[in-house]
Write a structure and sequence with these properties.
By secondary structure, the protein is an all-alpha fold. The protein has 14 helices and 2 strands. The chain has a two-stranded antiparallel ribbon. Helix 1 packs across helix 13 and helix 10 packs across helix 14.
């Protein structure tokens, strides 16, 4: 018995060590971005790289927040595009996922396969068709164009995840609501949505993050520099007189902060939304 306990402890220590090593490997680029943003350009290009800045400077952040080309405008653009894409994704994906979960059809597997295929399509494949469609609709160089495009990425993902989530919820709750006089739609609104909030929060978070990190759609569909989001604004620091790497690193740090904040604050809901119904089919 003692031998079994010791082996279990050794296994747990080994798994913990491996997890720590993997975590360090994945987090090191983020650490390097933050550290480089606090260095001068001279120290960044030093022959011997420094893990800790010799002379910490916040001038790159000062320029980003208060300079003539500050990030506040592009941050607002990113926030608006990501929020609009998230709202569109939730409005369209949640009813679709619920329908596929509660009203099975012969073509359900075909729909799921189509959603899986759309996740494998490269962005460059659909840029030209989308550009022509948006040009005919007159929405090029507006926030709606990248928001719609980002929604096309997140909607299939959200449907696939939420479908399994709705399958894991007891159908008896809906039956009880219908006995009390609720229609299918009202049972969905009053019963199913409130109890599935972890899945909805997860879906909203991923939809927001998909749009927040987009670059291809923003560069293609928005030609006015003042209307572009933060991901496209990083090109402002690559000029003919050289690249200001410390400012780019500071810009990258500020760009990734909302992503980190969302995962830290909503970690419980994201994990619950991804794992609930993971083995339900």
């Amino acid at each position: 018995m003692k031998t079994l306990v010791l082996r279990t402890k050794e296994k747990n220590y080994m798994l913990s060590f491996i997890a720590i090593v993997i975590g360090v490997i994945f987090l090191f680029p983020l650490y390097w971005i933050v550290v480089s943003s606090l260095k001068t350009n001279v120290e960044i290009f030093a022959s011997i790289p420094t893990l800790i800045p010799h002379n910490i400077t916040f001038s790159a952040y000062t320029d980003q927040l208060t300079g003539p080309n500050n990030i506040l405008n592009s941050f607002g653009n990113s926030l608006l595009i990501a929020t609009l894409s998230m709202v569109l994704s939730i409005i369209l994906a949640v009813p679709a996922a619920y329908g596929l979960a509660r009203f099975p059809m012969r073509t359900t597997k075909i729909f799921i396969m189509i959603f899986l295929v759309t996740q494998m399509l490269p962005v460059t494949l659909i840029l030209t068709p989308m550009f022509l469609i948006y040009k005919n609709l007159g929405i090029l160089d507006t926030y709606l164009a990248p928001a719609l495009s980002d929604a096309t990425i997140s909607i299939p993902f959200v449907i696939l995840i939420l479908r399994t989530y709705f399958l894991s919820l007891p159908k008896e709750l809906e039956d009880s609501a219908k006995i009390d006089g609720c229609s299918t739609f009202m049972a969905f609104i009053k019963i199913m949505l409130p109890i599935s909030y972890p899945g909805l929060v997860m879906a909203a978070a991923f939809s927001f993050l998909f749009a927040w990190g987009d670059l291809a759609y923003a560069l293609t569909f928005i030609s006015t520099p003042e209307s572009r989001p933060m991901t496209a604004g990083i090109y402002n620091f690559m000029g003919k007189y050289g690249t200001e790497w410390n400012k780019i690193m500071a810009y990258g740090t500020l760009l990734v902060l909302p992503v980190v904040a969302i995962f830290v604050v909503l970690q419980k809901y994201i994990v619950a939304g991804l794992t609930n119904g993971a083995v339900k089919e």
